[in-house]
């Protein structure tokens, strides 16, 4: 990877650890971090026009339309030219094409690969901090990072996982194949502790 590349997107199936690894890498490099899913949930909570448009799709455990996702990400990326990391974008070929067009810098794609059965197991135990967004498990009573309250995500159900996993296979995998022809894509095995996976990512990027 060229030494001057400080822009990344973190992709992977649901519960693959994108949020955890994305935050760790962004903190280590001192670059801005955007979780498109968390940002959409915040827009919904605030009742913004964008959030109201997104609500209908998230209630059905569906990805939001490409045009809405691109609108959310484009303005953010253009405000962080010093470096950025996108968690969960692009999810489709149209989103990938849009990112390749509007991103002002070269970027690297980090793809987390995790077996399907492991993903299902993680969904059952996953908890997210309502204060800082840190992803933990039901082994913790409070967020180990900020002490905030942990709660299960509304889309972490068996039905929700199946819909999102199928969408990942049909939409995001083709987008990854497109990105491989246009930029650097690094695939990382997402099994192991968060520290082990973070170390594997760091090894690939140096």
UniProtKB/TrEMBL annotation:
Region of interest: NMP: 35-64
Residues holding AMP: 36, 41, 62-64, 88-91, 95, 153, 164
Sorted UniProt keywords: ATP-binding, Cytoplasm, Kinase, Metal-binding, Nucleotide biosynthesis, Nucleotide-binding, Transferase, Zinc
Pathway: Purine metabolism; AMP biosynthesis via salvage pathway; AMP from ADP: step 1/1
Subunit organization: Monomer.
Catalytic activity: AMP + ATP = 2 ADP
Listed GO biological process terms: AMP salvage
GO cellular component annotations of the record: cytoplasm
Sequence similarity: Belongs to the adenylate kinase family.
Binding site for ATP: 15-20, 126, 192
Domain of life of the source: Bacteria
Residues annotated for Zn(2+) binding in this entry: 129, 132, 143, 146
Taxonomic lineage: Bacteria, Pseudomonadati, Verrucomicrobiota, Verrucomicrobiia, Verrucomicrobiales
Any GO molecular function: ATP binding
Entry-linked CDD domains: ADK
Protein name (Swiss-Prot/TrEMBL): Adenylate kinase
Protein species of origin: Roseibacillus persicicus
Localization per Swiss-Prot or TrEMBL: Cytoplasm
HAMAP family cross-referenced by the UniProt entry: Adenylate_kinase_Adk
Enzymatic class: transferase
Domains as described in the record: Consists of three domains, a large central CORE domain and two small peripheral domains, NMPbind and LID, which undergo movements during catalysis. The LID domain closes over the site of phosphoryl transfer upon ATP binding. Assembling and dissambling the active center during each catalytic cycle provides an effective means to prevent ATP hydrolysis. Some bacteria have evolved a zinc-coordinating structure that stabilizes the LID domain.
Known EC number: 2.7.4.3
Function: Catalyzes the reversible transfer of the terminal phosphate group between ATP and AMP. Plays an important role in cellular energy homeostasis and in adenine nucleotide metabolism.
PANTHER family xref list: NUCLEOTIDE KINASE
């Amino acid at each position: 990877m060229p030494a001057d590349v400080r822009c990344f997107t973190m992709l992977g199936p649901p519960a693959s650890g994108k949020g955890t690894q994305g935050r760790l890498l962004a903190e280590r490099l001192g670059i801005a971090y955007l979780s498109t899913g968390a940002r959409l949930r915040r827009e919904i909570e605030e009742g913004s026009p964008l959030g109201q448009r997104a609500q209908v799709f998230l209630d059905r455990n569906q990805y939001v339309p490409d045009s809405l996702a691109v609108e959310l990400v484009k303005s953010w990326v253009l405000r962080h030219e010093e470096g950025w990391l996108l968690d969960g974008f692009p999810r489709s070929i149209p989103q990938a094409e849009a990112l390749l067009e509007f991103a002002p810098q070269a970027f690297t794609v980090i793809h987390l690969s995790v077996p399907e059965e492991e993903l299902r197991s993680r969904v059952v135990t996953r908890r997210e901090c309502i204060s800082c967004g840190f992803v933990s498990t039901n082994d913790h009573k409070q967020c180990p990072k900020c002490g905030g309250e942990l709660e299960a995500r509304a889309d972490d159900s068996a039905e929700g996982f199946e819909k999102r996993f199928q969408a990942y296979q049909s939409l995001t995998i083709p987008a990854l194949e497109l990105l491989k022809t246009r930029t650097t894509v690094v695939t990382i095995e997402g099994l192991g502790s968060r520290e082990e996976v973070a170390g594997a990512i760091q090894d690939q990027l140096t």
